[in-house]
Specification:
The chain is of the alpha/beta class and about 850 residues long. Helix content is about 40%, strand content about 20%. It has 24 helices and 29 strands. Strands 11, 15, 16, 17, 18, 19, 20, 21 and 22 form a 9-stranded mixed β-sheet that branches. Strand 28 (about 805-810) and strand 29 (about 815-820) form a beta hairpin. Helix 19 runs parallel beside helix 21 (about 635-665) and helix 21 (about 635-665) runs parallel beside helix 24 (about 790-800). The longest helix has about 40 residues, at about 590-630. It starts with a helix and ends with a strand. Mean pLDDT is about 75; it is low at about 1-25, about 60-80, about 95-105, about 540-550, about 600-610 and about 775-785.
């Protein structure tokens, strides 16, 4: 087996340009466009040998496959070398002393020799330090495998990477190391200090003891000997785990940490770097790219431990027709450009890269319901379904893969629905909207024949049925509801419970496709689920266009008119207050002072409104002028559209906050209280805000007591109050911070707490934080983009419930806001 690293090593040989075989006449035809200076340079180095520096270990990795066909052996340059290895070292070192080098021209390197008319030679060295020293001294022209650190970029040029591999953490099977924070306080092995520094850059709070080894093969040996608890290396070296018989596995991969295999050369070799960059980019799009993909798949065949039958299946480059649900975001859906997206689709893209299987999508899928897709599969018109759940009926005509994801199934109802449900049978006698063809039909009918099923076309219609009252509930995975609520704005729906069964996401193939199912199973087992979920579980953004832009302008104008109207109303109130104060002057000095104070408060309010409106309006005006006068490049316009949208959203929230506060203070808001279980109520708030917190890069925790109690509250208003507190916490807590949602039960009351690890509030400001338009002097300035009304609204809502709200803060460490509400019947 040719290891992938060997492939990369051989590929890099392609980049070395010596010109002993290049014709000196200017009629040489190159496949790449060269400048006259570059052509002259190639002719000027005719007869010179360019060298690629490699370590002895890497040479053995490449050339001793015939000696060690089953697995790699530890390679070090000492008495432990085999006779064959010692002979290679002696012969090569002898050649080096005579100025000769190991000449080797694999198929990959022959592409460069053919394109540029060059010869290539290898120059071995004992280790990477010697290679780098030889490069800087000029005895080596290129080196493969150096990390492109900031320091090295000062004196080296790095050519385009042939391929990039994510870093992974390797541990003994059964180890407790499963995620990055499990490394805390452990001994971790590294090959390069630069790798260690990259991990610390990504996780500065992670504390562990690094241990460095000069050869990569020593890492698994140290792990087996218990010198280290885990080691970190790029996944291009995956087959190192085959060095011993002790099971070693990938514990996890790093999302944003990868290693690129690329050639490095001295800065002064600018002309050579320019030529090689063009040639590498050209060949990556042609023969070299195809060669790398093939070798990458051969490498993965060994990583996946494919059988001969599975390898033969892939050798036929199968085309697999794919079916999926077109509106089930974020699991799978079709975006506005007609492209399939979602977690299930990300998996088959990854499987395609691992195996070379060609997955083909029917463009008509976006117009089909799920039941139509199922019928196409049953008729044999589709080979694979990317997301399907096992039912007894389906087992007869589907072969299922192993699950690749699992989610809690929530019960979604109207926000006015006071019920709290904990199992599917709680929906007996109620109407549940379920899309035709969904497995939930069978499941609910098996639970109870008293549950009434309303069959609808798709998931969107199911949600609308509950909003309009046609159905009482819809049952759906939590991510599906959360993402679709954020995208479509199902404001009248909320999670009111969950069923006892989890939903397992699986793929399905035709019953006779056992080999395909086995390959997919092995890929799913290898693929990092967390990495794909981070990439796929995103709320899709609507496509921005001219209609959208003009819609923004209309919304902006309406927001401006509304703001001016409110300002006028406020100003009119100031004038009235002032007149009344002047009339009252003769009656009593006390009344005059009261009116003056009211006047000052109104002026302060006007000042804040004016300031807070002017800031986003200035940004909107500048952006719209730039767009209207065509001052921007096309690729810059989406950023300005997004900026305008953000500022319009700011105006809209500001106007909404002013109106809400005005209604609350005027006592024009009346409570519509219902009975709620406090734990279930807070859990619902937690579900509804989870995406916002996680999107901000913050840890989110809910702490609930064992006992549950009833509260008699307006669920809509109290949820708004607590959500305001969570928004406030997000605004003033930087990643990687933490927000805790907590419920405390006392003798005759409950306390809802929102705690953050953010900037905190100065002690002198705490008594004023619940006043309108107040923004703390240092930690919470107007630069944060708030209106200063969020906490004032919270206080008004809590006052309506005859409760209390308080703040406790430690500057620089965080803030806790507590809302105390009476228990029902107290």
């Amino acid at each position: 087996m040719k290891r992938l690293f060997a492939t990369m090593l051989l590929i890099c040989l392609l980049g070395l340009t010596g010109s002993t075989a290049m014709a000196a006449d200017a009629s040489q035809n190159y496949p790449i466009e060269l400048t006259n200076e570059e052509r002259v340079y190639l002719e000027s180095v005719q007869g010179r040998t360019f060298t690629l520096g490699v370590t002895f270990q890497d040479i053995f990795d490449v050339f001793l496959d015939g000696l060690t066909p089953k697995r790699e052996v530890q390679i070090v340059r000492d008495e432990s070398l085999s006779k064959e290895q010692q002979k290679i070292v002696e012969d090569t070192m002898g050649e080096e002393s005579q100025g000769k080098f190991l000449d080797f021209t694999p198929a990959e390197m022959q592409l460069f020799e053919r394109d540029l008319g060059i010869d290539i030679a290898l120059k071995p060295a004992i280790n990477m330090d010697n290679l780098e020293r030889g490069l800087m001294e000029g005895s080596i022209d290129f080196v493969l495998g150096l990390v492109d650190s900031k320091e090295r970029k000062e004196y080296l040029t790095f050519l385009p990477s042939f391929v990039e591999f994510p870093f992974a953490c390797y541990a003994l099977e059964g180890s407790r190391v499963q995620q990055v924070y499990d490394l805390y306080d452990l001994r971790i092995g590294f090959r390069f200090r630069a790798d260690y520094e990259e991990v610390l850059d990504q996780y500065p709070e992670l504390k562990f003891k690094p241990i460095f080894y000069d050869e990569k093969t020593k890492l698994p040996e140290a792990l087996i000997n218990r010198e280290i608890d885990a080691y970190i290396l790029d996944t291009g070296n995956y087959t190192l785990i085959d060095i011993t018989n002790t099971p070693i596995s990938v514990a996890f991969t790093f999302n944003d940490l990868s290693y690129g295999y690329s050639l490095a050369l001295r800065k002064e070799e600018a002309m050579l770097a320019s030529i090689m960059k063009k040639e590498i980019e050209y060949q990556l799009d042609h023969e070299l790219g195809e060669m790398i993909q093939q070798q990458y798949r051969e490498y993965n065949a060994n990583v996946l431990k494919l059988t001969e039958a599975e390898k033969n299946y892939l050798a036929g480059r199968p085309k697999i027709r794919v079916g999926f649900i077109s509106d089930y975001m974020p699991i799978e859906y079709v975006d506005e450009d007609g492209e399939p997206q979602g977690l299930g689709l990300e998996y088959i893209k990854e499987i395609s890269e691992l195996t070379g299987i060609q997955f083909v999508y029917d463009p008509e899928t976006k117009h089909k319901t799920w039941i139509q897709v199922l019928e196409d599969f049953r008729a044999g018109e589709l080979d694979l379904l990317t997301c399907v759940t096992v039912t007894e009926e389906r087992k007869s005509w589907m072969r299922f893969t192993r699950p690749y994801s699992g989610h809690t199934i929530s019960i979604v109802g109207n926000t006015k629905n006071p019920n709290v449900l904990s199992r599917a049978s709680d929906m007996e006698g109620q109407v549940v909207a379920v899309p035709v063809g969904y497995w939930m039909n069978d499941y609910l009918q098996n639970v109870s024949d008293k549950i009434q099923i309303l069959s609808v076309k798709d998931q969107a219609e199911a949600f609308r049925s509950v909003e309009t009252g046609r159905a009482d509930y819809v049952v759906v995975e939590i991510p599906v509801f959360s993402y679709q609520q954020a995208y479509y704005g199902y404001d009248r729906l909320k999670i009111i419970g969950e069923v006892e069964k989890n939903s397992l996401m699986q793929m399905a193939v035709q019953p006779d496709q056992a080999v395909l199912a086995s390959i997919i199973d092995k890929c799913i087992e290898t693929i990092d689920q967390g990495r794909l979920e981070d990439r796929a579980m995103l709320i899709p953004k609507a496509k921005r266009n001219d209609v959208f832009f003009y819609g923004i302008i209309v919304i902006m104008a309406l927001a401006l008119v509304g703001s001016l109207f409110l300002t006028y109303r406020s100003f009119y109130g100031v004038v009235v207050a002032k007149d009344e104060a002047e009339q009252a002057w003769k009656e009593a000095e006390k009344e005059r002072k009261k009116a003056v104070k009211a006047n000052e408060e109104k002026n302060r309010m006007l000042m804040h409104i004016s300031h807070d409106l002017r800031t986003p309006l200035t940004t909107i005006r500048g952006s719209t002028e730039a767009l209207q006068e065509d001052l921007l490049e096309e690729d810059e316009k989406p950023e300005f559209y997004q900026l305008i949208t953000q500022k319009v959203d700011t105006l809209d929230r500001m106007v909404g906050d002013i109106m809400n506060l005005s209604k609350l203070q005027a006592k024009r808001v009346h409570l519509n209280p219902d009975l709620y279980f406090a734990k279930q109520f807070l859990s619902s708030v937690h579900f509804g805000t989870m995406i916002l917190v996680e999107k901000a890069g913050l840890e989110y925790e809910i702490q609930l007591p064992e006992e549950d109690v009833l509260i008699h509250v307006d669920g809509f208003l109290l949820e708004k109050a607590i959500t305001n507190l969570i928004h406030n916490a997000i605004k003033f807590t930087k990643s990687p911070g933490k927000i805790i949602l907590r419920l405390l039960v006392q003798m005759d009351s409950v306390i809802f707490q929102v705690e953050d690890t953010g900037a905190g509030i100065p002690a002198q400001d705490i008594p004023f934080v619940f006043e309108e338009f107040f923004k703390a002097s240092r930690s919470r300035s107007s630069n944060e983009g708030g209106s200063g009304l969020g906490l004032a609204i919270v206080k008004e809502i809590v006052d309506l419930h005859e409760g209390s709200v308080s703040a406790k803060s430690d500057l620089g460490k965080g803030t806790t806001i507590s809302v105390q509400i009476k228990k029902a019947g107290s």
